[in-house]
Specification:
Blueprint: E1 14-17, E2 20-23, H1 26-38, H2 41-60, H3 67-75, H4 91-106, H5 117-122
Antiparallel strand pairs: 1-2
């Protein structure tokens, strides 16, 4: 991996999942638990596979990224499809709201400290406004 492939992250522990080396931080563990407890098994398995694929692609393409943000956002990306977050809004909005709540409640102890997850999730609102005529 080249120097640009990953933002400098001070000694982030890693673990092997399905043969893929991924970061192992308290925030990632909390995101995994959050998704597992609130998602149906098929959905939880999907987001975990998505995380593994994202980690592989980021490494293969030498894409500069924050591995903790990549993990958390990928693990939480489909929360709106879980029964636990079924609500009156489109699933994308319900999921973004759930992920934002998670980030605001859990993201304060972020190990790398390079991105404010709560503020990042709050910026998602601009992307969840319905298009004209919808």
């Amino acid at each position: 991996m080249t120097a640009i492939a990953q933002r400098a992250q001070p000694d982030v522990a890693s673990r092997l999942l399905a043969g893929v080396s991924v970061p192992d931080t308290p925030l990632i563990s909390r995101a995994i638990d959050f998704a597992r407890e609130r998602s149906e098994p098929y959905l939880f398995n999907h987001v975990m596979r998505s995380w593994l694929f994202a980690a592989i692609l980021a490494k293969r393409n030498q894409t500069a990224h924050d591995s903790e943000v990549l993990a958390v956002t990928t693990i939480l990306h489909d929360l709106g499809l879980a029964e636990a977050f079924n609500g009156p809004l489109r699933f994308e909005v319900e999921g973004a709201n759930a992920a934002r709540t998670f980030a605001l409640n859990e993201g304060n102890g972020r190990s790398s400290g390079t991105v404010d997850l709560g503020r990042s999730c709050a910026q998602l609102d601009a992307f969840h406004q319905p298009l004209q005529g919808n």
